[in-house]
Amino acid sequence: QPLLEAHPENPLSHLAIGVWLIVHPEAVDRAEASLARSLELQGGRWQPRYGWLAGKMQYYAGRYERSIEILSESIESTGTRDRFSESRLEEMAMTPRQDASTDPRIFAFLALASRELGRLEDADHYLAAHRRVLPGTPWTDYEQGRLLLARELPEEAVEAVSRALDLDPSYVFAWSQRGRARLGIDDDSGGK
Questions:
Q1: pTM here?
Q2: Of the candidates 11, 114, 115, which has an alpha carbon nearest to the alpha carbon of residue 53?
């Protein structure tokens, strides 16, 4: 409450309250009201710097459709009509990181929410965008491995997760995922 009293017209104040409340099932209505006020203060469109956080919290609350809606709108608010075409992704990869439309967190949560909804092609597309905006991160290969395993392609999953481990040998989740993928191909190497 002090945050709202101190900054009643700041969209981040309302977003912060909404984010805090969204993880409390009994407060979802209040959280949505705070998110709606934040959106109103942003001129009726989710701006990337606020939208990624609102979308992330919707994801963590298990509201995947809403997460995708907010995250997509935060990208669209940059005025990009053909937002995920090959040429647009190439352009985004060349854009300085200050351009909020290239925020890799947006693409990461779009990929995660799409995977949760079983939209694996969409998840692949968002991972490709994440990789172009932020190349060389093990998380992208790890998630690619999870998608490939969901598609019942364990050999390809092992390759993807192995790339993540090449980038970061201490990535515990990738070791675990590689072991799961190897179990899918009856590999008796123990995940090594």
A1: 0.70
A2: 11
